[in-house]
Specification:
single chain; 330 residues; D-amino Acid Aminotransferase, Chain A, domain 1; Dna Ligase, domain 1; 3 domains; four-stranded parallel sheet; four-stranded antiparallel sheet; binds adenosine-5'-diphosphate; binds magnesium ion
């Protein structure tokens, strides 16, 4: 028997629907259930060939449990090692290498020294920063947000230098990025499952939470949809996420990737709506079944981004924006 488990937090609709969907498919020797955890012993396998992880970002104990499970062959979705290393500045940098447009972005040192460090710890950093170049490059208005994070926490729109410094002075030890504002006409949020299934959803981030998924979306040009789909696939294949959402802001017909490291994206029936919910339940169930079928005992069954393999082969990823394709150095 191959077991598929789901590890989850406060959400109430997706986990049960996922399990029911897998089980109603009645695949030979495959069943799904809620993950059960008790004593966690180093180096010991857990009884799940596949684990869908929806919560380890908030529960470090679970993240460690999942790494140990992965080492013993569980296909953990998403890869807990990569998820632990992931942050938005790197993701943006990677986007520039795979030919996906992202807003101009710079990384800034935290306003205060990290705990137990002082200015001597950071002598490599030139002081003051070259603010003139930074502001000229990014322009105003700009977005100012943490290099790792989510849920719109500490995301600010800044209109002037004064605005920027006022907020910067309140960000403490957070590492922040300053980012060009994309003044968008349309905004999309896209599920990407198994690095091949893409669901493009019109989304209005300016609405209150429960109204953000647009109920009666207007028609979108086919070419734009195709480009979005391609960009979603490029990003998720580079990052190695099997379950993710990617957000795009559209300016002058060009999709700019804004937020694309959401490895436990909202999948609640009440926020995404019935059709999107049905899609994500079905796609995730199919992915989990597929991963259970191809699971092999005693090997690493995780997904790694193709950029990792590229590095492992001592190749450098080069962007080629004009051709919009990936090139590799031998
Ligand atoms: N560069 C940008 N240009 C325009 N809008 C942005 C930009 N960055 C963020 N936003 C807006 O702020 C929201 C939250 O920012 P986001 O990067 O998604 O942070 P989080 O990961 O916390 O959700 C986005 O959904 C978008 O509406
Ligand atoms: Mg976001």
């Amino acid at each position: 028997m191959k077991n598929i488990g789901i590890l989850f937090g406060q959400e109430n609709t997706f986990p049960q629907a996922f399990i029911d969907r897998v089980n109603t498919k009645k695949e030979n020797n495959i069943k799904a259930e809620f993950v059960k955890i008790n004593m966690v012993e180093q180096g010991e396998a857990v009884p799940y060939e596949v684990i869908i992880d929806r919560i380890s970002q908030d529960i470090p104990f679970y993240r460690a449990y999942l790494k140990n499970a992965a080492l013993n062959g569980s296909a953990v979705i998403n890869n807990p090692f990569w998820w632990s290393a992931d942050e938005k500045f790197f993701n943006n940098a990677l986007a520039t290498k795979v030919g996906v447009e992202v807003p101009k972005t710079v990384l800034l040192p935290s306003n205060e020294h990290p705990p137990d460090t002082n200015e001597i710890s950071m002598r490599n950093l030139e002081y003051p920063l070259d603010w003139e170049s930074i502001f000229n490059y990014i322009g105003f208005p700009a977005f100012f947000k943490p290099f790792a994070g989510g849920g719109w926490k500490n995301v600010y729109k800044v209109n002037t230098r004064e605005d920027f410094f006022n907020i910067y002075n309140s960000t403490g030890t957070l590492v922040m990025m300053l980012q060009e504002e994309i003044d968008f006409t349309d905004y999309f949020r896209c599920y990407c499952i198994d690095r091949r299934e893409v669901r493009i959803m019109q989304y209005d981030p300016k609405q209150p939470h429960h109204l953000r998924y647009v109920k009666h979306p207007k028609p979108i040009e086919r070419l734009l949809l195709k480009r979005i789909e391609n960009d979603v696939l490029k990003l998720n294949n580079a990052l190695g996420y099997d379950f993710n959402t990617v957000e795009f802001a559209i300016r002058d017909g060009v999709p700019y990737a804004i937020d694309f490291g959401n490895p436990a994206p909202d999948a609640d029936l009440h926020s995404v709506g019935e059709d999107n919910f049905e899609w994500v339940v079905e796609a995730t169930a199919n992915m989990a079944i597929h991963r259970a079928k191809i699971h092999k005992e005693g090997i690493n069954n995780l997904t790694w981004g193709n950029f990792v393999t590229t590095f492992a082969n001592n190749q450098i990823l080069r962007s080629n924006k004009s051709k919009n394709e990936i090139m590799y150095d031998d």
